[in-house]
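Hi R.,

Here's the chain you asked about this morning:
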Amino acid sequence: MKPVRTRVILITVLIIISLFSIVPSIYPNTPSWWKAAIGNAEMHLGLDLQGGLYLIEKVETNKAINDKLYKDYSDIAVFAGSKGFNKNNLVYNKNYLLVKGKLLKNNSLLMKFISKRHPSLKLVKNKIIFKKSAVVLFKKEAVSGALEVMRNRIDQFGLINPNIARQGKNTIVLELPGVKNVKQAVSLIGKTARLTFQLVNYKHSLKKVSAGKLPKGYEILYHTTYNKYTHKTTKIPYLINKTVLMSGANISSANVQINQYNQPIVAISFNSKGTKEFADITTKYTGKRLAIILDHNVNSAPVIEEPITGGSATISGNFTMAKANDLAIALRSGALPAPVKILQDETIGPTLGADSIHDGIVAAIVGLILVVGFMVFYYKLSGLIADFALIENILFLMAALALFGATLTLPGIAGIILTIGMAVDANVLIFERIREELRENKPIPIAIENGYNKAFFTILDSHVTALITAAVLFYFGSGPVKGFAITLSLGIIINLFTSLVGTKVIFDIIANKKKLEKLSI
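And here is the predicted structure, written out as tokens:
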């Protein structure tokens, strides 16, 4: 009886722990000490159960390639100019750099510089292009970078258990359960937040430029303001040098502050590298006008009155507090390496989620009643023992999901229902083996022991193969598929314990009765 007592104590302790773990997920007003005792672990509802936002976004990787080429062009152009070549000898195109004149004739000097500073480029005839391997790498990095930036932004947005995954070559799938302000979420996730510092040019007349005489290497960008009282939008044009003196890549912090006019602004600080870079720029271009550009919009264009060595700057723009907060989050998480385009935007309402929960629970209860009823009808008292193991299985499974902080989805509920069927399947195999032993007139204790021993490897094989399938689903799947795989995997592992240990301990207690002459099976 000693081994039986040990197993009874183990199962009792597990049941108590399971009940203790499940309560915070069911009862929202659970005391804080209770939640702290289980590490604040709690089961969460997925997008399909509590509603939220489902997005599929495409990363425009070609734009990332074009931006990279222009940065390289600026560097090569400076080098060519330093060697006395005419700036017209190098022409930028979206897909290549055209090399002309003396620069092409003396290409050995150019190639030496490119191989040292820009190894991803190559010269083919009279064009500088990216190597194919570099294009593949840059596109891959653009998607990976966008994925990481989105994940950082969503983390700061305060969402619980979002799912962000790459799909295909350049698309990203986002499942954001519990989103209340959909418009704000879409805006924040898709905001490029590319911050650059570029010089303003006043040597050329904007009137002439507007007439179509745009100087080479320049573009017209606008500072846009909106008057909330008159509801008028004003656009002030600036002639901007395309050369990026500094980007926002070295921002260490971005926070919302209130200025002297009681308006929210975003204060940014640079890391040590950014501080030095900003100090060098403001020293070199003292007296010039420096444009602070956010996503191709001129935020401000102040005159550099003196070198700025403190490593900080401010961004103002008639912000609301909400917009200033979103901008600070976007800047802290970094700029998207390439613009993103929304391919699918689907809002799932909480009503649909409530209906899904109701239908899932009804299906689980109906399945449970049918299975319990069948086992009692067909296997009598032994069927009741199997039903005890089944309820034990569901209890342990829900506790495991809560302790792991898992997200329950509709497919996850389907996994639980499937587990119900698998839970009794193992007991059916055991009971049939016990019946065979009893037909051979073997004593009840021996029949029970042999029944479990003979069914053990069959049960183990079926559960291991199912577990492998669940592992494959988890590895290659995403979102709801992973939810199904998690519940199925946990259900399989727990089922092995409840069917081979949970029921066996009850049979051992029954078999130890000295006057037991017949087993109800």
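One quick note: The chain is about 55% helix and 20% strand.

Cheers,
M.
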